[in-house]
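Q: Hi! First time doing this. I have a protein sequence and I read that you can turn it into a structure. Is that right? Here it is:
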Amino acid sequence: MHIYLVGGYVRDLYLTQELGYPETKGDRDWVVVGATAQDLLDRGFLPVGKDFPVFLHPQTHEEYALARTERKVAPGYHGFTFHASKDVTLEEDLKRRDLTINTMALDGKTLIDPYGGLTDIRTKTLRHVSEAFKEDPVRILRIARFKAKLPEFSIATETQQLLNEMVANGEADSLIAERVFLEMRKTLKEKSPSQFVTVLRSCGLWKRFFFDLPISQNILDRLDQNADIPESEKFALLTHCEDNPAQIKAFITRLKPPAEIIDLINLWNKLKGCFAKTDSESVLKLIEMCDAVRRPERLNHVLHLAQIVYDLKIDVWQNAFDRIKHIDYAQIAASCSDKSKIGEAIHQARLLAIEECN
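A: Yes, that's right. Below is the predicted 3D structure, encoded as structure tokens:
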């Protein structure tokens, strides 16, 4: 039995050593060669894998996987069978991975690099390991995410050709919304999320999966420049350039994001054209459409997006909201003998409060 350190930890180690990338403290993953599941169980490892044998170390709780190969047996990214046994070599295990930069392994301090991952790190190249790359459509999303993580890297010509083929031949049509959203969620945390869109456009998947949702270069730049904004705001930015409600609905239906993201996408696209007028009535209308008194976070998100997209000073809306949130709404309700007039009375009180602060 022999154990090797593999995967992202090794890649990131050499990104730091060779290219000066910031040091990361990601999880370490291990591959076990020449062993069976029973061998690891006998040593106290805890099984966690469902599709293939993965175990947790009894002390460190790091993941140890038996070396395995995989074979495509059906369409889509679920259509694989795995084979794990004592005779699977390290090189065979590494060959099933997506990119060469992810195929390096460490045996102690000795680098094992059968597919040229270190060379591709030095030349800043994203290159597929084998033709098996095109059997898994999720790898299109993964390479797009790596381009967002490593924007200085370029995609090898032959790898770009594979991406194009996977879309053209329909292999990517088996992608499901939940997996696409998961990869986008990860990508939006990367250094340059705009690269995700660029890669998917270049191979045709953006048009095929997202109905060619328009995104201007200006919005892509602002997405990259605002890495720390909330996730829901990033997804709202992605839809900013689309003015057709039906297309926005199609994007949401296709992607199936959580309710809070859907809410902000819809809210922003209702209000993104409402910032030109700053008279009291217009300011109050925007605040009320956000239901800001009950849900102030919605107004905060919208105003933050307005700052990002329009370089807008938001004091007018902030000051107005500060005034109306201190209104005694219970007193207004109690003073209305005709309860059907409460809503209008509240609206007028808010309007007066805003006018007084101008």
